Amino acid sequence: MQGRSLLVAVALVFSAGALFLFEDGADLCAAPAGFAGGAHKTPRTHNLVERDYLIKTIAFEAPHESAKGKAAVAYVVLNRKKSRRWADNVKDVVTQPWQFEPWMTRRKEMENLSPDDPRYKAAARIADAVFSGDIPDPTAGATHFLNPVVVRKRRGGSLPSWAAGGGYAIGRHTFYAPNRPAYAVHWAGLSFGGIVRLLFTPSAC
To answer: Which of 33, 95, 152, 193 has the greatest CB tally within 10 Å of its CB?
Structure first.
């Protein structure tokens, strides 16, 4: 029994480390439906312009994705803002050339999207939940994402260099944190039970 208790303790510490070490991917245990859980909230400061641009980015980048997939796209934007490598505000992050395709190809349509449009309202619910911290980051800090099927077709089967490492698939998109270990993104997508099974199921070794 002592040995078993020690293993459980190690699992608790290890899983907690895997979930809390990578900012905003932490504590996924009590998240809204469709997520792996998390009571810890990390509210994000923002203004109305940033909210509007994030909503429109979600609406056009992830129109057919689940709530988790939409939130993942939102977090890529906010993680870029947080890093300040791209810009220090949402509008400049999403409108940078060659970064978020809809802002390059459909900008006028996006800017004209009305708050009364059902697409805007659906994306607004996700954006507000992300800003408030009610939805934690399911990507473990990703700053890049792509649709591998579309990108491979465009590039003759290859992916960009930043997608060479491990990514985390959510819906049609795969999310990457190029400056983080690949296992960080993988573990952030697991529940506590999943982590325990991964650690102690012989076939997983």
So the answer is: 95
Residue owning tokens 């004209």: 112
Q: At what angle do helices 67-83 and 118-132 cross, to 10 degrees?
A: 60
Output the tens digit of pLDDT for each of the chain's 205 residues. 444 444 434 333 333 333 322 333 332 222 333 333 333 455 667 789 999 999 999 999 999 999 999 999 999 999 999 988 888 899 999 999 999 999 999 999 999 999 999 999 999 999 999 999 999 999 989 999 988 899 889 989 888 888 887 799 999 999 998 876 554 444 444 444 544 443 344 433 3
Helices assigned H by DSSP within 62-159: 67-83, 90-95, 101-105, 107-111, 118-132, 148-154
**Nearest-angstrom CA–CA distance, 198 and 205:** 8
In whole angstroms, what is the distance from residue 31 CA to residue 189 CA? Answer: 12
Kind of pairing between the strands at 168-170 and 173-176: antiparallel
pTM: 0.68
Q: Which helix (H) or strand (E) holds 174?
A: strand 173-176
Contact 141, 22 (CB under 8 A): yes
Burial (CB < 10 A; 0-12, 13-18, 19+), residue 154, is exposed
Q: 3-state DSSP call for residue 205?
A: coil
Q: Which two tokens stand for residue 179?
A: 């400056």
